[in-house]
Amino acid sequence: MELTQKKITNLRVEHITKRFPGVLASDDITLEISEGQILALVGENGAGKTTLMNILMGLYQPDEGRILINGEEVHFRSPNDAFAAGLGMVHQQYMLVANMTVLENIALGFKAAWSPYKLNLEMVRDRITEVAKKYGLSVDPDAYIWQLSVGEQQRVELVKTLCLGARFLILDEPTSALTPQETDELIVLLKNMSSELSIIFISHKLQEVKDLSDKITILRHGAVVFEGNTHEHSPSDIAALMTGHEVDLPLNEEPACEGIPVLDIKSLNVKSDRGFLALNDLNLTICSGEIVGLAGVSGNGQRELAESINGLRKVENGEIQFYGENIANKSPHHIIEAGMGYIPEERNTEGIVPSFSMKENLILKDTEHKEFSRYAFLKNKAIDKNAEDLRVKFDIRSPNISIAAGSLSGGNIQKVILAREISRRPKFLIAVYPIRGLDLGAAEFIHKQLLEIRHEGIGILLISEELDEILDLSDRVAVIFKGQIQKVLARKDANRRSLGILMAGVKDDQTV
Ligand SMILES: Nc1ncnc2c1ncn2[C@@H]1O[C@H](COP(=O)(O)OP(=O)(O)OP(=O)(O)O)[C@@H](O)[C@H]1O
Ligand SMILES: [Mg+2]
What we know:
It is built from 17 helices and 22 strands. By secondary structure, the chain is an alpha/beta fold. It binds adenosine-5'-triphosphate (ATP) and magnesium ion (MG). Magnesium ion binds at residues 49-50, 92, 172, 409-410. Adenosine-5'-triphosphate binds next to β2, α1 and α14.
């Protein structure tokens, strides 16, 4: 089938300025990208990357400035106008409908398939096959979104954008939720695609920026502060240009702790959404004052483990002993009261209430606490002070503390969750991908915070796919594979190689 989009040989934004109440999100930005180029857009959390892309896609109107395609000025009143011109964006938060199939999701945006009386699903199916073949992107059109891993959903977003005929792709942190393997695959794919498309790529992971892009633009406080050719700069150069200083992630160098077992998981069986056993007789013990890193390829039970410990998923059988109480199948509220802290994977749906203010989100779990309420009345002064303190300490970039948490930038939403969970000093913390979406400076700060609360005696289960993060922080490393703990290694025995072998499911290799 024919799509109407013309080739985009050049896209230019000139003097774009965008103000939100209290924030200058884009400050006189001019940049240009030509056919076949990949431009990396980097900068700290809240620097204005997503805002600029939303302007390009017609989601926001700029206060000043203009957009030119192939030298001609365009006016996008909505994303539909941007699609029609050949622009497509994969957003930082995926926008798929969970209880619909891949085919139905793609059909939603596919205007050509809608006649007045019926939807031509076969036309959409053909188009998916065509795109899948052309770009080597395989997706199952009949799978439900809720059945897919994050990596697969990411692929669906990409296919959807390409089905609509995009000639110019905007990818906002496409790899932040992908496994290292999925990331490598995506990078190869994008490189191949770049012969036909132009791409703007946003990422906090500088190695990827290095591997993929031709040019780099750095934003700070809404303004372009640096432009250059990627091959002329090392990742540490770029980091320094971005933050204004050298970044050094801290290491856990304290002796292995000798705390008492506080979280003791015995023969845990838990089902996945699809009904099979995601945790199969899982055993794991974690002490006070230690960080246990859970390494594994995503989809091996990590999500189910975090959810079942926090009362968000049914335990079929087995025990979760927490400070001497079996909390299996207790309510989330009960488990929070028992002292469990949780940094969830899904920050927008599980971590914050987007329509509540930032300050309310910062006390979400403590609204009954006497520090913040009395006879069902909230103590506003204490709540404001708490939010102001955390805003400064965690460097949350927001114009004020009353702003809806959902309007913060992706990384700053993550900082709100981290600030709340770390500052309330739980007795134990489950941290799932804690630095996902954070800029390097913020990642450094969060790692320091995790080491500090460990030092205070709080036990931490750190779930991550970043082996560097696990190796930097953990006292012990447990490797999860198909819902079981393959092996638990002391820090001194854990390295990329030993973990890699165990993560692939090899149990008692002599070389480990
Ligand atoms: N709809 C909105 N209403 C009010 N403020 C907004 C809105 N969207 C963005 N902002 C503000 O604009 C600034 C830039 O945000 P933006 O999302 O563009 O940052 P970013 O560079 O994408 O950061 P991150 O790396 O954390 O995703 C932030 O201060 C943010 O709070
Ligand atoms: Mg963003």
